[in-house]
Amino acid sequence: MPRRPGRELVFATYLAPCIRPVYEFVAHQVGKELGCAGRLVTGESFQQLRDGEVDFAFLCGLPYVRLRREAQPPVEAIAAPVVRGERYGGRPIYFSDVIVSRENPAGSFRDLRGCSWAYNEPDSHSGYLVTLFSLFCSGETGAFFGRAVMTGFHQESIRRVGVGQVDASAVDSQVLSVELRDHPELAGRIRVIDTLGPSSIQPLVATMACSDSLRRQVQEVVTALGTNEAGRARLDEGLVDRFVAVDDSCYGDIRAMLDSVEGARLRLD
């Protein structure tokens, strides 16, 4: 049931902590523009989206397409960020950058056979699904790697590669750029040897707790952010240029990758 208008709109983030300042800004500005409080919480489970415990969420594309498969999809994509940088071409896309330590001689993803591999979590598109899809396209399986280790976050995958605990990882290109900006010493420890993608970037979704009218209002507010200097500065904390309107059809690429990987029964252990 749609949530009736009240004093507070609850946004949840299921994404990398280093981008959280952008999501906090979005939640605050939406509340300000709509005359109510906007609060950001850390998402604890996807069941919160089904139960309508939150109104909007910043969600990875992989769980998004999985949730959209349900008989009564609990979420709908309404907006997505455009990341700053020439490689993004002004589109709501991102990449998975394959990183190794500076000392690692590998020159591309295909050189990593038998290496140890870090991934953030199995509900991640950029850290997990796109890796499996790349293996699928090459006729490989998860056994391509010597071992695979789950780290919990992209930042932790980056750290482990940098200190030599694992050989390589594929990480969200936006997260990697923010980490390199905020921790410039990382540039002396890691390097990018390959890029997987592009893929449609993580959407801001509305849950069924929201009326159609509220979804449209929030979409309008979010896509207008960054039109002033103060707003641009806040978005730039996450290297975001602006948000643009998206819908479910924008995530067909991730849906196709998931279908291929599931059909081949690929996984990382």
UniProtKB/TrEMBL annotation:
Pfam families, A to Z: Phosphonate-bd (PF12974)
Organism classification: Bacteria, Bacillati, Candidatus Dormiibacterota, Candidatus Dormibacteria, Candidatus Dormibacterales
PANTHER family: PHOSPHONATES-BINDING PERIPLASMIC PROTEIN (PTHR35841)
Lineage top rank: taxon: Bacteria
Gene3D superfamilies for the chain: Periplasmic binding protein-like II (3.40.190.10)
Protein name: PhnD/SsuA/transferrin family substrate-binding protein
